[in-house]
Design a protein that fits this description.
The protein is mainly alpha-helical. The chain has 2 domains: about 180 residues, no CATH class; about 210 residues, no CATH class. Helices cover about 65% and strands about 0% of the residues. The protein has 19 helices and no strands. The longest helix has about 40 residues. The radius of gyration is 23 Å and the shape is globular.
Length: about 475
């Protein structure tokens, strides 16, 4: 079920009313309703994949209980590896089998040998990378004794499948989300209205910014062979805002929806395009995933301990694995490799922890040096997105060849078309409002704090009108494929 669909517009208010008027006094009834609604939400695409979520949940729930009972370290490690193998095995089968099979065959062909491996004609379950990592993190934390395993199977099933963040995150840690299922939620008007504001901003980013950019991104990337370098550069910039509006918009809708039911998620995006270097960008982009890889891969590998060679190895591993997490294609691996290359100089010159606060904190405008740093970071991130969007490495390199040709100084195609002008205008609106709200948990929190009620509500109604007039409906989210 899409957030930006008529079905969700009916589903969410219906579940909200049932939740607060039918099951407001018993936590068990609240959790039962959440579980049923979450399974309906996910099963809307294909009910058969519900068995995968249920299977992953049962395995990690049972392993958690066994980890508590077992004191021998060898057996505890075996249980942890069982959880890892089951979760990663399911993910590898559905998402990566065909990639490895194809590359295995091609590798043998290079040596003059011909072999054949059948590919699997299966559909990638929506959101499998997200709920697999969420469930797996529970087993790892229990193994590390950072979390007491739950005996409440209903709460655990809800934790894995909670519908707002089930399909595309944020990837919530059990330590934060699971205890919220133990206690009775009571309706909080302030929390609910803040959730609605965050959802409103998410719908604007997705339907108005991302989906209006999407039509030109598709035109430009699909027709790259016949377009100028300036047009291809425009396409890369538009894709930067498409993927930001699409993914951060989903996170805002998810976090806002959870607030309607009395839950608090961690922030997943923190105005990443105002980052002053690539390290800050990754502290602000898809925070739940980057911290997941930091805690469960980078630190176990040794983190920043040891020699520079070992640390550099760890940096490349975490970025390449992060790229591969996004999809079974060499383009994603190379995208991760590029970000590792961007990160290495910061590590070598000890500048990776330089910017821990928000840009221009306490000031209205950035200083010239800070602005240049933001523009440089945005540029390299945008160029790297070309590999993320391209269908193949050869297509991406051909795209860059045209960008860095003489045609780069020509007038971009489509630039004066009305829909392009609208897209660029709303990108400007997004940047201005994100800048003003950069010190808050979400952009519209700033509007709520700074302006009087008449001005606030005029702005909110204007935003609703813009979504209805200029928003594109029923367009899927980019990260559903991951």
């Amino acid at each position: 079920m899409l957030f930006n669909s008529l079905e969700f517009a009916i589903f969410l208010p219906f579940i909200f009313l049932l939740y607060w008027f039918i099951a407001p006094k018993r936590v068990k009834f609240q959790n039962i309703l959440i579980l049923i609604s979450s399974y309906v939400f996910y099963g809307w695409w294909d009910w058969r994949f519900l068995f995968l979520i249920l299977f992953s949940s049962i395995v990690d729930y049972a392993i958690g209980l066994q980890l508590q009972k077992t004191t021998q370290e060898r057996q505890r490690k075996q249980l942890l590896w069982l959880s890892i193998l089951v979760n990663i095995g399911v993910l590898a089968l559905f998402k990566y089998y065909n990639f490895f099979a194809q590359n295995f065959v091609e590798a043998f062909t290079l040596f003059g040998k011909s072999i054949s491996l059948d590919s699997l004609d299966i559909i990638l379950p929506v959101g499998i990378s997200f709920y697999t990592f969420q469930s797996l993190s529970y087993s790892i934390d229990v193994y590390r004794r950072k979390l007491e395993p739950t005996k409440d199977w209903l709460s655990f099933l809800c934790y894995v499948s909670f519908f707002p963040q089930l399909v595309a995150g944020p990837i919530e840690r059990a330590k934060n989300l699971l205890p919220q299922f133990y206690e009775l939620r009571k309706f909080n008007y302030k929390q609910a209205t803040d959730g609605i504001r965050q959802m409103l901003w998410g719908f604007f980013k997705k339907m108005v910014v991302a989906d209006n950019c999407a039509r030109y991104v598709t035109l430009i990337f699909d027709g790259a062979d016949d377009l100028s370098g300036s047009t291809l550069l425009l396409g890369a910039v538009l894709f930067s805002f498409q993927i930001y509006g699409d993914f951060s918009g989903y996170s805002d809708i998810a976090i806002g929806s959870a607030k309607l039911f009395g839950f608090n998620f961690k922030q997943n995006f923190a105005v990443p395009y105002f980052s002053r270097n690539i390290a800050e960008f990754w502290r602000r982009w898809h925070i739940s995933l980057s911290t997941w890889f930091r805690d469960y891969l980078y630190i176990p590998l040794g983190g920043n301990r040891g020699s520079k060679i070992h640390v550099l190895r760890n940096i490349f591993i975490i970025f390449i694995v992060s790229g591969f997490w996004h999809g079974a294609n060499w383009t994603f691996i190379f995208w991760g490799f590029l970000h590792a290359l961007f990160f290495v100089p910061l590590f070598l010159f000890k500048a990776n922890r330089k910017y821990l606060n928000v840009a221009s904190q306490g000031r209205f405008l950035p200083k010239p040096k800070e602005l240049l740093s933001i523009l440089y970071t945005f540029t390299i991130v945008t160029l790297a997105w070309v590999f993320f969007r391209a269908e193949s490495l050869s297509e991406a390199f051909a795209y860059f060849k045209t960008i860095f040709s003489a045609s780069l100084i020509s007038k971009p195609a489509f630039i004066f078309e009305p829909k392009m002008v609208i897209s660029l205008f709303f990108i400007g609106v997004l940047l201005c409002l994100d800048w003003l709200g950069r010190e808050n948990n979400h952009t519209l929190e700033h509007i709520n704090k700074r302006f009087s009620k008449p001005i606030r509500y005029t702005f909110y109604y204007l935003l609703v009108m813009i979504i209805f007039l200029f928003g594109v409906r029923d367009q899927t989210f980019i990260y559903f494929q991951f």
